[in-house]
Amino acid sequence: MTGLRSWLVRRLLLGAGQTVAVVLLVFALTEALPGDAAVALAGDQPDPARIAAVRETLHLDRPAHERLAQWAGGLLHGDLGTSLTSGRPVGSYLADGFGPTLLLAAPTLLLLVPVAVGLGVLAARYEGRRPDRVISAVTLGVYAVPEFALGVLLVALFALRLGWLPPTALGHGTDLLAHPAVLVLPVLVLLSRPVCSLTRLIRAGMIDALASPYVAQARRYAVPGARIRYAHALPNGLAPAAQQLARTVDWLLCGVIVVEALFAVPGLGTVLMNAVAERDVPVIQGLAVVFGLTAVVLNLGADLVTHRLAPRTEVAA
User: Fold this and answer.
1) pTM
2) Distance between CA 227 and CA 204 in Å, rounded?
3) Which of 265, 245, 251, 94 is nearest to 186 (CA)?
4) pLDDT single digits (tens) 273-300
5) Distance from C-alpha of 230 to C-alpha of 312, rounded to nearest angstrom
6) In the chain, is it the N or the C terminus that has fewer CB atoms within a 10 Å radius of its CB?
7) Cα torsion at 299, 302, 306, 311 (round to 10°)?
8) Left if phi > 0, otherwise alpha if psi is -120 to 50, otherwise beta: which for 187?
């Protein structure tokens, strides 16, 4: 127990350091963005006095270290800042975009885990035989198709040619739950590549576990094959997949920009794209910090799951 506690303390300290690095990096990158927010907000043909007034109102005339200190202090109190273009709190942008993003992420994850585990276990059980070859070939082929290309193909087939599903979410607003058919094609696109990578990781992990000495010893003691596969080999096969699953969850929750743009879903990725187009620096900073912290927390959770499933394996996030 002491070893687990010391390991957890080290991971929490590392997570705290990563959080500080995320805040500093986000501020530095937004400072390096080309253009001047004051000029963009002052109008089409602004005079120097108007630009100076906007810069003073937005505190852009202050030194960078002072603005960093003020922004970081606000973050400690849960204040992500205020939009330069609309005057709305950045938190309201997060609230608006999180709902549609969650509606895409939740069904994707609900389908991803059982499908990937089932296919990975099936391929490992029949290693080298026809089921394994079929699963490996299909997952490799699907993974090679870019999301944008797959989305276009699905829209052309199921929306334009067959007319079974709507091509985009245009006209449905943010209440996508009332129109579940809108979610089918985006979820299929989001599911395609993660299920392939997780399946192959679980397959490889189970094959290694089934070839290990402790499994051979269990077979010598006549332990049932199902118990060997699911009680001993599967946890070790899931350990490396936990890291990939954490990255997938982070990718889904932090706005899948390509898929949201293709299907006109007003999620966090769309919010971020609009903020970049308008050079709305506080919104960009707030979203980037939330995305970074989400990645840190998910990787910490994945490390803990990996440590519990395979304590002998030290996997860095």
Assistant:
1) 0.77
2) 19
3) 265
4) 888 877 788 888 888 888 888 888 888 8
5) 19
6) N
7) 60
8) alpha
Transcribe 83-111 into DSSP letters. -TTT--BHHHHHHHHHHHHHHHHHHHHHH
The CB density around residue 38, as the number of other CB atoms within 10 Å, is 21
In 10 A of CB 162, how many CB atoms? 9
Instruction: Give the 3-state secondary structure percentages of the chain, helix then strand then coil, rounded to 5.
Output: 75, 0, 25
Query: What are the Cα distances from residue 292, in Å, to 32, 141, 247, 275, 303?
Result: 18, 31, 12, 17, 17
Confidence band, pLDDT 50/70/90 cuts, at residue 172 = low
Check pLDDT > 60 for residue 317: no
What lies within 8 Å, CB to CB, of 254 at 6+ separation is 268, 269, 290, 291, 294, 295
Rounded to whole angstroms, the Cα distance separating 183 from 172 reads: 11
Cβ count within 10 A of residue 12: 11
Beta partners for residue 82, in sequence order: 89
